[in-house]
Amino acid sequence: MAAYIIRRFLLLPLILFGISLIVFGMIQSLGSDRLLAAYVNPGLLDKLTPNQLEKIKEKYGLKDPMVVRYVKWLKNTLSGDLGWSVVGKEPVKDAILNRLPWTVELALYSIIPVVFVGVWLGIIAAVNRDKFIDHFVRIFAVVGWSFPDFVFGLLVLMVFYSVLGWFPPGNLSFWADTVVKSPEFKRFTSLVSLDALLNGRFDVFVDAIQHLIAPILTLSWLWWAYLLRITRSSMLEVLTKEYIRTARAKGLAENVVINKHARKNAMIPVITVGGGMVIQLFAGTVIVEMVFNRTGMGSFTATAATQLDYASIMASTLFYSLILVIGNLVIDILYAAVDPRIRFS
User: Fold this and answer.
1) Whether this model's pTM surpasses 0.85
2) What SS3 class is residue 194?
3) Which end of the chain, C or N, has fewer beta carbons within 10 A?
């Protein structure tokens, strides 16, 4: 197992190298004139003379052969120089670092309700097959999975913000944002809710949670429906196995049969799906962040794509690739942890 993990980590740079080649090649094929916006504030481009533009192209090697440009770009990327973000109006590195904590915070708070409740509902439905609760959960799954997430998000926004005034959109209220940006507010983790507790500002913590509940509810609704269907199908298949009938024939209590023998063996397909969901949460949920006006990685990347912010697009793609590669590695390791029969020899 340790050898497998080491091999996967050794392959990580090679995979990222391949991804960087693809991303760089696609962006560079647009031409040097379009790529100037990746290195210079686009607001200044119209004010520069042709001679100045040519000097900028020479400075950043936009007229060099593709291989030379790739080496320079890779060197700048590894040193943290990712170019200028048109969307963020600041260096890409700073733009990502400023937005990443909001996405991470949303993902961390979403994992527990999304994964654990979805799995729990699937197990409940499978154990009570063809009973009322099973039919109820299946109807919930069909309705939930058929409901577009942006429509459900808008409904949540309308009911819980417009009507009830409970869960406002955005990252924070204006007064809480002012407190967070003040010099007195210490940033320990970059996650506002945790930093608020560490600073003793429970009012800021409550405000941050109020802004998280509606996005979490929207994400949960969508993924619950999908995850419980996978869990239910996997549990029903496991419950028909010989070893389950043997365990029941030995007189084991039903909760022992379910929790010790059935649930664990039904988790492999659930880990595949659930792991992918967690990866998507950390990579940024574009639609949810756009609907609830949250300034995370998802909305940042979507805006960069619509405004042809090439430097931000390239950096975001590399970031998502890193998340996907590491996430898939964690999923593979969890396979062996859940099912000891799996070996990576």
Assistant:
1) no
2) helix
3) C
